[in-house]
Design brief:
Number of strands of chain A: 13
Helix content of chain A: 25-40%
Strand content of chain A: 15-25%
Distance between the termini of chain A: 37 Å
Number of helices of chain A: 11
Radius of gyration of chain B: 21 Å
Order of helices and strands of chain B: HEEHEHEHEEEHEHHHHHHH
Number of helices of chain B: 12
Shape of chain A: globular
Shape of chain B: globular
Number of domains of chain A: 2
Order of helices and strands of chain A: EHEEEEEEHHEEEHEHHHHEEHHH
Radius of gyration of chain A: 22 Å
Helix content of chain B: 25-40%
Number of domains of chain B: 3
Distance between the termini of chain B: 52 Å
Oligomer: heterotetramer
Structural class of chain B: alpha/beta
Structural class of chain A: alpha+beta
Amino acid sequence: MYYKMKVEKLPELYALIASEKALYLPIEQAGAVEFRKWDESSCVRLDCLNTLKSAKGVFLPQSENLVAFKTEGKNISVIDNSETAFPFVIFGVRACDARSFDILDRVFLSDPVDTYYKTRRDNATVVTLACNEPEETCFCRNFGIDAADPAGDASAWIVDGELYVRPNTEKGETFVSRLSQLLEEASDVEKLEAAKQSVRDILGKLPFAELNLDRFKGDNMLDIFHDPAWKSLSESCLGCGTCTYVCPTCQCYDIKDFDTGSGIQRYRTWDSCMFSDFTKTAGGQPRPSQVERFRQRFMHKLVYYPMNNDDIYGCVGCGRCVAKCPVSMNIVKVIKTLGGEKK
Amino acid sequence: MQEIFGLIKEKAEKLFADGSVNRVLGWKKGETEYDRIPSVFESAEELEEFVYDGFCAANLSKYLIRESREDGKIAVLLKPCDSYSFNQLVKEHRIKRDNIYAIGIDCDGKLDIDKIKAAGVKAIQSIEENGSEVIVHTLYGDKKFNRQDVLLERCLCCKGKDHVSGDEFILAQNRVDTTVKDRFEDVRKLEAMTPDERFEFWRSELSKCIRCNACRNVCPACNCIKCVFDNEDSGVAAKANVDTFEENMFHIIRAFHVAGRCTDCGECSRVCPQHIPLHLLNRKFIKDIDELYGEFKAGADTETKGPLTDYRTGDAEPSLISDRGGSN
Amino acid sequence: MHRIGVFVCWCGTNIAATVDVKAVAEAARKEPGVVFATDYQYMCSEAGQALIRQAIKDNALTGVVICSCSPRMHEATFRKTVQAAGLNPYMLEIANIREQCSWIHKDIKEGTEKAIILARTAIAKVMLNKPLTAGESAVTKRALVIGGGIAGIQSALDIAEAGYEVDIVEKQPTIGGKMTQIDKTFPTLDCAACILTPKMVDAAQNEKIKIFSYSQVEEVKGFVGSFKAKIRKKARFVDENLCTGCGDCTSKCPSKKNKNEFNLGLDNRPAIYIPFAQAVPKVAVIDAEACIKKKTGKCGLCEKVCSAGAIKYDQQDEIIEREYGAIVVATGFNPIKLDKYDEYAYSQSPDVVTSLELERLMNAAGPTQGTLLRPSDGTHPHTIVFIQCVGSRCDDARGKSYCSKICCMYTAKHAMLIREKYPDTDVHVFYIDVRTPGKNFDEFYRRAVEQYGVDYIKGMVGKVIPHDGKLLVQGSDLISNEQVKIDADMVVLAAAIEPDPTARSVATMLTASIDTNDFFTEAHPKLRPVESPTAGVFLSGVCQGPKDIPETVAQASACAAKVIGLLAKDKLLSNPCVARADESLCSGCSVCQNVCPYGAITYEDREFRIPGPKRSEIRRVAQVNEAVCQGCGACTVACPSGAMDLKGFSTKQIMAEVDAICR
Amino acid sequence: MPVKTTENGEFKPLIVAFCCNWCSYAGADLAGTSRLSYPADVKIIRVPCSCRVNPLFILRAFQRGADGVIICGCHPGDCHYTTGNYYARRRMTLLFSMLDYLGIERKRTRVEWVSAAEGVRFSEVMNDFAKHITELGENKKLEDLRCKKSLD
């Protein structure tokens, strides 16, 4: 069942949602579009294809407090000062980012469950938005993602000045029901289907539409691992964390203690396997040079993760790393170099 | 640029052929029409992938820290502005000059793909550089740009067309000057604001920082074996901007550590995924240094003492700053 | 595990009156790491120190904090105390709760609060203290004196007198320096040669002194107590040991028309020559550029006449390596070149001379045998104009910004001598100011004016115009506010003096610092005026700044006293609070070296294990010479990676102090 | 976080003073010996030379809640280590200018040259600086909220 409303009424829609729950939207600030909490003054950018950081930050913030230790003289007390849970809606998630939640769920919701993540997931209603004008950096299609018909608790489309919404889950149904004063049932679904089809046509014509992923199967693991191409692929890598920090599926974090002077704030923060001190231990650095670190990142996305997760790739083809890598080295280049050109 | 590209490639092939080098550091085509990857070519055959055009913006000099320590001699392609970084690295003993054959190459300004995309260009299929025009072909149609309008910020206030170092130069016959503004213009604009306005400006800019370290890792002056911000022992290490203070601190200290050493190559701003105008921090230091201690161009040579490792007995007093007036 | 003890001193009522010392001890006891805290009336008393020693033993303390007076007062005392109890003396910190607290605050609550914070800060620091040991190094009991003028000779004589060996390295064929060229000295008017040459002879005959004339220091390595120098002994083509200084060769030499340096080119000398009669060593030297034999291979006349067989045309430069414990810089000065002062016609007329040239023209051993004659025509001058401050106190790039200090006095001397010897000669002096601070100086100047009738004109000369064998001097008299024109026979220019051109290279070699005028910088302009900031390098004479002879000699002796003090030590103990480079972080960029005032930082290539197939790499890393480093910490901030740290004031310690204050 | 108000609710700043051992620290001692008072808000950290003061220390102090930071050294030309304060002068001038550029209050940071003989001046400088900082109020632009928030 599809519902619709005029695009002009979007501010009313936001206000209505926000009257009940916190609302996250792609919002521009100082020229940067990110998922941020909405208020009346926000500059919403639903037209933005890729927020700079992905939507994952809503569930796995770049940094979050876990626990604190307060010191008074020689006494220490433990204080839970993690964020209190609140229900929220995240609206405008693209198909690729929506898939990334599935990938992250498999990590954080499987045993042992990450309660910080789970609490946010449980409290969230994910409303996706179909892509209208995919870019040359997009390659979600290779991972079976349909950018013209994204998943989520509810999906949305903007076609010809109208917003179409379709609930997909119970949460989605609830979401839509709360908006009944703005939404009406859509009777012109054909128009929407046609729009979807035209987007799919474009998706098929994009330069990275058809990547050959055949080689990235579990039984080729060692073969790929030892491929001499890693050296030349990694030689330009600066070892920065841009790809990791913009990636919707990168999930590694570090736990650090900050001495506040009157105690310790323990927090977790995203980490990057590209960093030279990633997983460094007392015994040394298991991946001593950038070649190994670089390889790790892509092996994880293309080989290890699928091996452990029903052949689901750890990449969703959002293209952020393609657009943002300072040296233009990216997963597409890796796939093409290691896996050959088109099918 | 086409003629230059040919000449460079020819030269590189010759260097391989006569055995004067065993590697060439240049750029190769990446996966998109505008991606150019800094690359080490190990044979004449590998040069098939070599490219030199408006998107070869990366400053290659920093790679020499690693590459000049490898066996054999490496040829490196340096644009005029890169030659300053090169000199600075030689001055700081970070690269082994003897193992390098430096080829100064012509530059007519580099293109900023983000400026092109900001004009609403999506799904790029190919890009044509045609003199003063740049034509972008996309799935949604073609778009034509005036080359000057889509140049990188740094090229609009180019340091100059002349190399400050190099063993050989391959230059175009008609050299294009892309300078249209004074490089301190934007710094002056900020200086003219009230402190609160400046504070707001930098808060909004620096709060975008995701602490990816791209600015630092690409910077030829940031070449410490281990950065203080990565060193748990330094007391200031951090992986994320957990507090607004961290955002300020990281960028202030980074700019301070490269003050007097920064050649204003502009790589920091070019690679920043958040488009934070980081060069405005470095340029502020450069401007202050020029005004207070006499004009100084880091990397102009390999001998002159840097302004922070030098002094005059009659230098300005720090009270100069608080005497700038205003209520705070 | 830290076991810190905190000792709060009452200082009688000095502290206890405005700080609740018991409360401070109580608060300190609650701090993590503190296992013992107490208070006592006078911690510095023997009983107080005994209390500290006992507590260290009883509580197995690993660090001590004393809350008391300023560390500048009793830090050394308490270091000894804790050392006596078996702790490293540097495991001590002092919280200054007297000068910084009890004495300046009236309110006991406020004072106590602050004292607690200061105590906490010291506790935070001491937890990061590391045991430090002062380094020891041996002292080579020999000094090197660079420059054999009156400064160098005096320093050498004094050092030798104390029983230490001294080498004088002089670049000219003879020692003696500028003073050998001077006729008489002010304000006593005694003959320069009469007081200098005995000293030269003393130096030559002193068995502790070794003179390397016609030699230059080429390289200096090492540090205070153990320098290694390379000295280039230039070939003089005469065997020093065989030459008797008889002079037969010089009179026979056919190449006679060579500018005589000793007389500043006012006359000529042969290609083989002895600079002057009292030269030390009195050994001939061949000017290879003038010698016919050296140039054409023909001649050899000197070899034939030398009965001692001392002529060695094939002599080569010799490099001598010597070790020293201390180095004296006595590189002296030169008058500036006057080629940029065209207005005074110096290069146009031979009758415009510098003051030093005038010295030669008035000297009995000079080109005119002491009779003052005009260089142009050998006639007696009747009107002489002196122009002061030529290049001194100058604000343009041609001259020097400083006052050359000696000119006022020597000009008064010249004027007086001329007026005395040739009463028919009019003497005019153009000056900006007359500066006569010195014993009997002003009296001397007044005698020139009052007794000898020298005409002093306050004002500058605009132009000197040679015409018809005369010199028209156009100047202004600022007092009468009139233009003055004098038709003079001779003009004498008081040229500014500047450090010898070798000063810069010597400074670089010694890593000693020089100022923008190339004068050597003192370790402290007031309190350590004869030491360079570089340990073991001392400054004698004009190399440090313009001086007259008595001042130079005084400084030379002071400098010698410092050298003797150093050489008298068998071992040097160094301050252990010095910089240290963490090689694993150092990238060898040299910024630290650039800011080090002591030249304590050098670089070494070290092999490091690195990850990856290559396994190791060679890296240039900084090394701090602990004997030379004085611990200022300039390098620690210059170093961007934090590889450079300062022991005793480490980055971590200072940050911990900041944290503790701001807690 | 330190308590920053007096009993009657007035703002009481926290000021960190870095003093070089040879001149300014001795000047502070002389101020003490001469019983010349200055606010207890000023806490002194002894460093060998003003050139030992790393910009990191200054930022650290602000991060931890300091409202003002002052660096004192020997007068130019009088540095115990000859050149230390000259380097410090350039570093601090540039750093302060950068802080100003970022919109941080200019008067929160200061450099003063105080000799060992200038006890009176030391106390005057500290009184004056403390006065300015009290007027400026709390440092809000360079604070770290983690240090400010009490952990519970």
